[in-house]
């Protein structure tokens, strides 16, 4: 065994201990990326073989009927609050389904995505898949000037209310939602004695939107629990009485943290 000695001929224990000590290697970004890709393919296979993807796509075809005239060949997609998909099982399942939908020509328009918790690795993955990262938290206040799928499973009701507010004049019929039921969220607003005026856009949508429930979701745990497709046949009666031009203000939440979801089941 080779040992190091100092200038006086004594064994230098410090040098030899340093040689023997193994450096702890952090989890390599490449390893994490590789693991994520394996899980991605696994969930993709499950989605294709359980019938959920076909169910969602057929419902979206119904929702998009008459929204895509010849002048508009495909819809845009906006995704809010997906979550940390490299760590969270539910968020990854949702991303895989979203990617499968975007492979369809019906959703080959622009793709926008935002979640403040995305890591740099996750951002790079999304950009490589053709997503445009929304630079700042717009809190759902985005006007859909063309038919747009808002992909928002398990996002907060405040975020839905803001999207509806932003499109209250003339563009409400461009909206198609994949996410939580307006009716269920509206019932919770009433039950919890929230300010009905603040949530008037969500309450109005619960009366006017068409809702298509999803089946074959149980195999994916909480990822698609209680989700549905919702759309508006017409937006003529959507404007609310006594509204002003100011965005809704919520006393119970931080206005800068409205883009949230409850995806927290780690892989």
TrEMBL record:
This is SRR1-like protein. Belongs to the SRR1 family. PANTHER family: SRR1-LIKE PROTEIN. Pfam families: SRR1. GO terms for cellular component: cytoplasm; nucleus. Residues 71-230 form the SRR1-like domain. InterPro entries: SRR1-like, SRR1L.
């Amino acid at each position: 065994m080779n040992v190091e000695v100092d200038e006086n001929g004594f064994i230098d224990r410090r040098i030899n201990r340093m040689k023997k000590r193994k450096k702890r290697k952090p989890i390599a970004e490449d390893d994490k990326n590789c693991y994520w890709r394996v899980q991605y393919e696994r969930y993709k296979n499950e989605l294709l073989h359980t019938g959920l993807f076909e169910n969602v796509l057929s419902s979206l075809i119904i929702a998009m009927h008459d929204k895509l005239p010849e002048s508009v060949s495909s819809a845009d997609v906006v995704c809010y609050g997906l979550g940390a998909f490299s760590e969270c099982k539910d968020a990854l399942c949702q991303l895989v389904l979203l990617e499968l939908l975007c492979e369809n020509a019906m959703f080959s328009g622009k793709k926008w995505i935002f979640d403040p918790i995305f890591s740099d690795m996750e951002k790079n993955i999304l950009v490589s898949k053709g997503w445009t990262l929304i630079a700042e938290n717009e809190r759902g206040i985005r006007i859909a000037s063309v038919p747009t799928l808002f992909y928002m499973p398990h996002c907060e009701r405040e975020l839905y209310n803001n999207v509806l507010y932003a499109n209250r004049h003339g563009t409400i019929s461009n909206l198609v939602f994949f996410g939580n039921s307006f009716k269920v969220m509206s019932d919770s607003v009433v039950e919890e004695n929230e300010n009905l005026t603040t949530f008037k856009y969500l309450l109005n949508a619960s009366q006017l939107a068409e809702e298509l429930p999803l089946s074959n979701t149980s195999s994916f745990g909480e990822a698609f629990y209680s989700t549905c497709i919702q759309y508006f046949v017409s937006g003529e009666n959507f404007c609310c009485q006594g509204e002003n031009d100011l965005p809704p203000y919520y006393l119970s939440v931080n206005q800068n943290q409205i883009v949230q979801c409850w995806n927290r089941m780690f892989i």
